Amino acid sequence: MKLITTIIKPFKLDDVREALSEIGVTGVTATEVKGFGRQKGHTELYRGAEYIVDFLPKVKLELAVDDSICEQAVETIAKVANTGKIGDGKIFVQSLEQVIRIRTGETGSDAI
Question: What are the beta bridge partners of residue 53?
């Protein structure tokens, strides 16, 4: 089992969620986050004063998937979230030791 964590632009959330559903991913956790990478933020004008916005709004998605669809899920996220512009995001893949569904006590892939 793998844990896929991805940081994407907020307006891509619905597209990515729908594409993941189509390939059989049944659960996704989304969190609104702020951050920066090479994009480095930008300057804005507010009430006549210019200030630097270092942290840009992003969406962090976390999904636990079986090894059999991990590569397909990563490819789907990369394809759908891509705008070709700086700040498209990152995808991180980690191994999951164990997953337990609290309600039923199911473990492993059955709990996903």
Answer: 42
